[in-house]
Design a protein that fits this description.
three-stranded parallel β-sheet; 14 strands; seven-stranded mixed β-sheet; alpha/beta
Length: about 325
């Protein structure tokens, strides 16, 4: 993910200058710097923060290191975009948001789907009242290939709710313009029981309620095999909006054997425009001295839903989403 952000900044966002890249795998950082034709690469975030001419940092480390990285960048007085999830625990998230607030720096969270042309068009129509009062939110998020077992063993990322469903939790809050109050999660490891020992699941269904009476449902699946499949529907009192087609391109191929369509296979292709628009908006916010559109508080609230979903799965019952008080400066 860091590589894509770096490529976008280097090649497609002329208002920003990519000054340096860092990775604990220093050779990877050096190679990336070489390929992107920039001078500076570092083997740690701390070393990179010493680099002259640095105004802002994109954090795309594994989930487990987000909280520490945000605090380190805040302490250095730099603005930042941090990939989702903001943190893996609510206490870490509160701590890092305090650090951001005290340092007076800006933080954007990487919920790039908000920048996807179809999702942002849906939001504009909802805001214009075209579907009336939102009543039901439904979303499907399926990755094509499940992570290798070594990724579970490494224990550097959150479970399915934190890595995958978190995007839909954010969409639910954003598109329904409401907060999720209660969740009930069902999960399965039936086709890959070995992931259970790492506290993870292969697929989940989360039913939920919103504060103002609407309801929702999100299905997440780590290994759909056939493709990368992200779809959302928002049903309102006057109509419905469906986002997501599963298709890689709009082309349909017809032969004597039937009809085929290329199915999307990866988030980097499906959401290519969204990642670019996300970084452009981050750079624009920094240059124009405004707060980012996707805030630290958005990161915290989506995380609170993920935590409730995990608790619901562990306790096998509905769980209230813990109240999150507004966070200043985030
Ligand atoms: N928004 C999205 O759609 C999206 C998509 C994919 C990944 N992500 C997020 O991006 C982050 C990275 O995911 P990924 O798939 O690129 O992971 P990855 O494991 O492929 O890459 C992570 C990189 O970070 C380096 N690293 C590890 N610890 C570090 C540290 N403390 N300081 C500096 N570098 C460190 C690793 O060496 C590696 O090169 C995750 O938080 C993930 O959830 C977001």
């Amino acid at each position: 993910m860091g590589r894509r952000h770096a490529e976008n900044l280097r090649r497609l966002v002329p208002q920003a200058q990519l000054v340096a890249v860092a990775d604990v795998a220093a050779e990877r950082a050096r190679r990336t710097a070489g390929e992107l034709e920039i001078e500076n690469s570092f083997g740690s975030l701390e070393a990179m923060l010493e680099c002259k001419g640095l105004d802002a940092v994109i954090i795309a480390t594994p989930d487990k290191f987000h909280a520490d990285a945000v605090k380190t960048v805040a302490a250095a007085g730099k603005d930042m975009l941090c990939e989702k999830p903001l943190a893996l625990t609510l206490s870490d998230a509160h701590e890092l948001l305090d650090a951001v607030s005290k340092a007076g720096v800006r933080l954007q969270v990487g919920f790039m789907r908000r920048y996807d042309p179809a999702y942002s068009a849906a939001m504009k129509r909802i805001e214009a009242g075209e579907i009336g009062v939102p009543v039901v939110f439904k979303s499907v998020g399926r990755d094509k290939d499940g992570p290798p077992l070594s990724a579970y063993q490494a224990n550097l990322g959150g479970m399915l709710f934190y890595t995958n469903t978190i995007h839909d939790f954010d969409l639910a809050r954003w598109l329904m313009q409401d907060e999720v109050s209660e969740v009930h999660a069902y999960t399965t490891v039936a086709i890959r029981p070995e992931v259970a020992q790492f506290g993870d699941v292969v697929a989940s269904v989360v039913n939920f309620k919103f504060n103002q009476g609407a309801i929702g449902n999100i299905e997440s699946y780590a290994q759909a095999v056939y493709g990368y499949d992200v779809r959302t529907e928002i049903v309102g009192s006057k109509g419905s909006i469906m986002v997501g087609s599963m298709q890689q391109t709009p082309a349909t191929f017809l032969t004597a054997h039937g009809k085929t369509q290329a199915i999307a296979d990866h988030f980097l292709t499906t959401f290519a425009d969204a990642y670019l628009a996300e970084i452009q908006d981050f750079v624009d916010a920094m240059l124009n001295d405004r707060q980012p559109r996707v805030s630290g508080e958005d990161g915290l609230r989506a995380l609170a839903i993920a935590v409730a979903a995990e608790n619901s799965y562990l306790q096998a019952k509905p769980v209230k989403v813990s109240a999150v008080s507004s966070v200043s400066g985030s």
